[in-house]
Amino acid sequence: MVISLLVGISAPVHAASKVKTYTNCTELNKDYPGGVAQSAKAKNKGGKTKKKPYVSKELYDANKKSDRDKDLIACEK
């Protein structure tokens, strides 16, 4: 019982450390060609895009600096 509690507590901490921060959109778009959206409800302000963004609040928050138009989608293409 104690072991399962320890595993349950340590898992979220380990998962949070896996969120990658990219230095620029070129790097981010290599892994996520459509960019990263904070939520599925985020709408692009900059016109038509070619690819759908990957939805991840944690990944978006780590790379929020790359969302120049503040539409809750970082590095959209």
How does this structure look, described?
This protein is mainly alpha-helical and 77 residues long. Helices cover 36% and strands 8% of the residues. The protein is built from three helices and three strands, in the order H-H-E-E-H-E. The chain has helices at 2-16, 25-31, 57-62, and strands spanning 36-37, 54-55, 73-74. A three-stranded mixed β-sheet has the order 2-1-3. The protein is globular.
The profile of the biggest β sheet is: 3 strands, mixed
Q: What structural category arises from helix and sheet content?
A: mainly alpha
Strand order of the largest sheet: 2-1-3
Helix content: 25-40%
Shape: globular
Number of strands: 3
**Poorly predicted ranges:** 9-14
Strand content range: 5-15%
Mean pLDDT across all amino acids: 85
Number of helices: 3
**Oligomer designation:** single chain
| Distance between the ends | 48 Å
Q: What's the order of the H and E elements?
A: HHEEHE
Radius of gyration: 15 Å
Features:
77 residues; globular; mainly alpha; 3 helices; 3 strands
Summarize this, please?
The chain has 77 residues and is mainly alpha-helical. The protein has helices spanning 2-16, 25-31, 57-62, and strands spanning 36-37, 54-55, 73-74. It has a three-stranded mixed β-sheet with strand order 2-1-3.
